[in-house]
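Obj.: predict assembly geometry.
Materials: sequence records (below).
Method: joint structure prediction, all chains together.
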Amino acid sequence: MTRGSDGEKRSRPHQPHPPSRSNGPAMRIVVPLQGVVQGRGGLVLGSLLPCALFYFLQLYLKRHRSPKNDPSASASASASIIPRTLSRGQLSPRAQPPLSARAAALARPDDDDSLYYAGLRRCAADPYHPTRNPDGVIQLGLAENQLSLDLVQEWLVKNAKEALLGEDKEEGLNIRGLATYQPFDGSIDLKMAVAGFMGQVMRGSVSFNPSQIVLTSGATPAIEILSFCLADTGNAFLVPSPYYPGWDRDIKWRSRVELVPVPCRSTDNFSFSIAALERAYTQAKKRGLKVRAVLISNPSNPVGNLVNKETLYGLLEFVTEKNIHLISDEIFAGSTHGKTKFVSVAEVLDAEALDKSRVHIIYGLSKDLSLPGFRVGVIYSYNENVLNAASKLARFSSVSAPTQRLLVSMLSDSMFISEYLETNRERLQRMYRLFVDALKQLGIECAGSSGGFYCWVDMSKFIQSYSEKGEQKLWDKLLTIAKVNVTPGSSCHCIEPGWFRLCFTTSTEKDIPVVIQRIRKVTESHRMSH
Amino acid sequence: MNCKQLLLSKKAACNAHGEDSSYFLGWQEYEKNPYHPITNPHGIIQMGLAENQLSFDLIESWLARNPDSTAFKSEGVSVFRELALFQDYHGLPAFKHAMAEFMEELRGNKVAFDPRKLVLTAGSTSANEILIFCLGEPGDAFLVPTPYYPGFDRDLKWRTGAEIIPIHCSSSNGFRITKPALEEAYHQAQQQKLRVKGVLVTNPSNPLGTTLAHRELETLIDFIVAKGIHLISDEIYSGTNFDSPGFISVAEAITERGEEVADRVHIVYSLSKDLGLPGFRVGAIHSQNEAVVSTATKMSSFGLISSQTQYFLSLLLSDKEFTANYIAENKKRLRERQKRLTEALRTIGISCLESNAGLFCWVDMRHLLKTKTPEGEMELWKRIVHDVGLNISPGSSCHCNEPGWFRVCFANMSEETLDISMERLKSFVLSGDGRGKIGRGPRRLIKWVRAISAFDRRSER
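Observations (raw structure tokens):
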């Protein structure tokens, strides 16, 4: 809606012009203003005129503003939602009722500039298969564990029907217990089974209390519900970066909590330090942000390193001193493959007489039990008020009853669970090693990692300009030339360009040479041009 | 030890989650002393739970005929792997298809639902909240006709920060929505400096049990078009329309209107009432508005339906023979049960609003009130819960502004239990002074009434 200065002059003679223009009407406005500023005459004109101008400007804007523009959405967002509404707005005086700012910002079909989501989409459109689609995009950007599904499948084939329906053989099939309303935060049976499972995952180092559990339909609602409980709109969480890209949506979107990254560096193998948290806290305060919690993932996503005991102690001291919360996302706790022993924050709390009411753990069955489709997440909290609030909020995200019943059965089979956890760890370790060794052949080094489904690799020597743009170019080459989908460090808010997350759990051993050969295309072409 | 008060969010710390109302307190009382025909025959009979337990046997017999449906098998081949990993918020295509077709069937196939415009959510509780998040900001208002489901005070307002302004309906015209009532509610919102973003209706109505008449639908649609706002139609009870007049979905009502109207009308559905499967947590939003569908789909990440459940239900609902038989038989049973209740009430001299749908009756007990005031209604309700031993829902909890109306559910118990409850009520009414069968001292009443714990373990539709 640009207009030339002539148009402005003719139609709206009293439109405010920028003071630098030297024409008659303008000077009539500017001079009194200058007069006011310089303390000379023109007070009446200098104060009345601007007010009048401002009033008429508002009137003008109001009448000419497009009715469907949501004031808080960006111009580009509203332009690309549904272009045809522009014409519809002219047909009828009343155009589309606006959506909320939340919806308007994200209603675009390809939302999220985040490459994380863009890559997932490209891969879904052309997925690799060794025989059916050997030229498809190989998925290394999804932290899903396909290595041990056969074990779960085997158990289900033997036990699923019995688990779901076989309760009372005399009465015959009876779905009443399955069909009717359950407690929204999960049945007590499942809570007990999950508490037991979590204890097995942590290898018996700590036991979990079922009454401190709120079950949700996945870890995604779990972290959102916790955000609603611990922070108000506009508050912030400190998050060591690089961090899981999904949190940008899960935490910021509806609960409107800010995430303040606390950058970690390759020199420390991307471990966070209390000093860095301290600095970030102070800086956040200066910006006027109220920090309500520190959010960590342990084992870390995307790096895969573990937080050691001393750091956990330091962290607990830090949050106690600042009187804030600690959220520990331990969703990969059972997926460790290194020699280092995983220590849950629960273990540290058990050992010490610390104020536990500020500590909350996020967990779920999507990673350790390879069942993301079944939607089971856990909020484990030591704070009764949080548990009360979260259990009420869980009504928006409850676990489906048949799934609850099935999992009660599966998780209670502790022999199966311990065999599964052990075999799964072995397979993870094997695959991790094969991947790391294979990547070494290309000159790609991985950060030290003991858990998770991925390698955090340094490909900075293959990017042309050491910047986020350079990293993006490399990511794009990997996706379009090598046809491999990886997660770029920028999506994870990594401060050092050139780091990528490669997941190794969605491939088989046979796929590794194919992956290497594909990536070689890009690394070789870089070598040759430099 | 110096323990500083650990701050929670305002939302977590406050009590304004709509769970202090009498509706929920009645639940608590029931939980303490639930009726059982053998082990606790003098306990409180639950008539405040809108659950459909009349047709489980139909589903059970289907399960017996289709054992593989729970074994993750499709024609002998395991589909487990795909299901285990399936967390696409676009939903299982087979299930969305089956769901869209089922919704069409419930509407006599008079309208078409596009599976691509369907968003799956973990229950209609989640669906309603997601729609409010999509359509309104904190401080925006939605107009809801009274009486309405008490859970809305929580589901629509709590996290979204939206407000509800009631559209007052009265018994003088059978609680029908009128244009003056709509205008009055809109005016109220403006007085309170709230921006109205939409109207939300439940059709068939909870707690009235009636379906919206054609002229009501026209009035509503004209109103939202004139004001430039949205219309959400919660049609969770669409399969419970057991008597004439038939159920007219808003989808049907807008077929004559243009695209602009279709873009602002959104339907919420769930399998909790029609199929009696609230534990499964299956809800859906259908809208022609692409922006709403797109945003709601992404928001459904916070409440996806288990792939196991989606798969099972895709098989169940694709069986057209089953669905046709189920819909008809379920309606028949509901009609019989409703008649049983209304007949029994009639013999006691209690009338109900004439209803043709739902799992409950809207019962007129105004003549039993000592004083025709909200306090009088509360007093009668306490006596019915405590002395008679029936947990029914008082109209005030549904924001009805005429004291003396109660919602009584009939589909969540056996016939025998229903008869017993009517016997109890009969004794109470005929005795005249509220002595009832179960004698409890007034002191315990007062103590119980003073208890303010927001106990909630079940939903209360």
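Conclusions so far: The first helix of chain B runs from residue 10 to 13.
To do: check interface contacts against the pulldown list.
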